[in-house]
Amino acid sequence: MQREGSAFAGLGVVMLKELSDHLTSVRMRVLEWLVVLVALAALYGAIQQIKDTTAEDPFLFLRLFTISRDPLPSFVSFISFLVPLMAIGLGFDAVNGEYNRRTLSRILAQPIYRDALLFGKFLAGLATLAISLLALWLLVIGLGLLLVGIPPGAEEIGRSFLFLLITIIYAGVWLALAMLFSILFRSAATAALVTLGIWLFITFIWPVLAGAVAQIIVPLDPRYVSLGLPTPGTAEAEHILARLSPTTLFAEVVVAILDPTTRSLGPIYLSQMQGAVLGAPLPIGESILIAWPQTVAMIASVILLFVIGYVIFQRQEVRA
Amino acid sequence: MSEQAVIEAKNLTKTYGSTAAVDHISFTVGRGEIFGLLGPNGAGKTTTILMLLGLTDISGGEVRVVGFDPARQPLSVKRRVGYLPDTVGFYDQMSAADNLRYTARLIGFKKAEREEKIAGALERVGLAEQADKRVGTFSRGMRQRLGLAEILMKGAQVAILDEPTTGLDPHATSELLGVIRSFKAEGVSVLLSSHMLERVQSICDRVALFNGGKIALMGTVAELGREILGGGYVVDIEADGAGLAERLALIPGVSGVERTGIGKLRLQADRDVRPEAAVEVVAMQGRLKFLGVQEPSLDTIYTRYFERKAEEANALKDGARHAA
Fold first, then answer.
1. SS3 of B91, please?
2. Does residue A27 belong to the interface with chain B, where contact is any CB pair within 8 Å?
3. Alpha helices for chain B (secondary structure H)
4. Quick one: closest CA in B to A2, which residue?
5. For residue B82, which residues of chain A lie inside 8 Å, CB to CB?
6. Does the predicted TM-score (pTM) go above 0.90?
7. Which of A17, A97, A314, A310 has the alpha carbon at shortest distance from B106?
8. CA dihedral angle for residue B104, residue B110, residue B113, residue B115, rounded to 10 degrees
9. Contacts for A154 with CB less than 8 Å, ≥ 6 apart
10. What number is the ipTM of this complex?
11. Residue pLDDT, tens place only, B170-200
12. Which of A127, A286, B137, B147 has its CA 20 to 30 A from that of B66?
């Protein structure tokens, strides 16, 4: 059955309204300050570390993102920790909030499809995150220029920009997840708790659990254990399981993009090392190739989560 | 399809699993008519409204709203129909005018016509002064009026109002009903659902009484009165004078006289016997203090209908018991 008219009529209107809501909301301001302060702390640590070591690193600028100084984690680990929090903060009451304010049926009685409302909300959330992350990125680059005093090369800018794009995609995964639960649960508190629970599970528990589950699927080989080596089958299973988590995918992509010497994201076999110059940086194109599968997996999970939410939303009866 | 009907439902059905929330109902609403959907909560009124708007799937039957099928042409329907949901909500942090601006942009009004329409609509519902106040500070009655302003701004041909007066104080209710009446004056058809019968009676041209997902009764209030109450008129008299009751009982058409208090009488008649009764009182040199006829009230019809249903059900049960 063909529907009349465009599914995207009203999309821009919804998106602009949601975007202005996000940008003026107290919630967003708190999250932004949290991210900025934490990122500055991490950056400060990294700059101190760089000044101390004065290494002859050709990619000194990228070290800003990855180097950490105890007790602070690196900028990248802060980002991978806080971006989901921001995305969940923006998305957990996207749909059930409308329902609870009793505005949903009034808005859906206007000549627009539900598609426009959902998609507009998602795009607005993503745009808000992108704006915040872009500001943060510029802040890091600017501070790096001021405090380190070495201008970044074109490749470094390119790589750090890719890092920005990937962070936005990563944020999209969590935004889509939060919106899915905002469709599933009528109560915003329930949706927020469930999404945060899943985030905690995926970020902190799953990496540990993946190892344990991998050992059940492929038991450790005593011959390798006696040599103190990981069993190849088990290690592979653990890798596959760990990659079900977007946090793992993001961490892997970031390593490949921000550390040009990364040659592989899995176990490396001797055959792959033949002819390789250890420690030599790869060109940016090669790094992208290494990170490509993980990136695609992240984009796919954004789409998958959004589509599940979309289908549920379309079938929901709007009675408020 | 008649020219005049703006809403036409034929055997409209909605089932959830095996239970039918709305069971083969048929009705039409004409242009400029105020049509009331009445009935207890859970009788299927809101479900019917959602189906008319294409907000929920139709399980069976046919429906046309301003000539369009809500399931297949939802945008055409929603462009011409205004909807005020049960306890309407607005974005509390935005002003009244901003809330309408958002809706106006969703509808697709051009910027130039937008402001004019919004100002006009707010003026009509008496919210012009509060246009720039945050909706968060609005009372319930003001929110309902803002909801009506949205329908006015939209220039809808049909206004569908779900329980518009629930939870309003008498003053807010009469203000709201005034706006609804003005819809009719402009040729806008109104479909409203309610269980506040007395209020509905005063503005509805025709009503449909819902019961268990079916339309039990439909017609004007007078028609329903005749059907359910048997066409009786009740005339109340307050007057002095000995033997008045006996005199009044002789008036042709009066079937019974009943004393309802000191100097108060109630006549049962098959027509309006007020003129004759007045003549009788005056002829006896009695002092007439009050004379009034009871219009068939929707409340009475409603109560009587459900009493009768209960009696029928009991009779059926008894019959079954006897048969057994």
1. coil
2. no
3. 45-53, 74-80, 96-107, 111-124, 140-154, 170-185, 197-203, 221-229, 244-249, 274-283, 298-323
4. B72
5. 109
6. no
7. A17
8. 50
9. none
10. 0.85
11. 888 888 888 899 988 888 999 999 887 777 7
12. B147
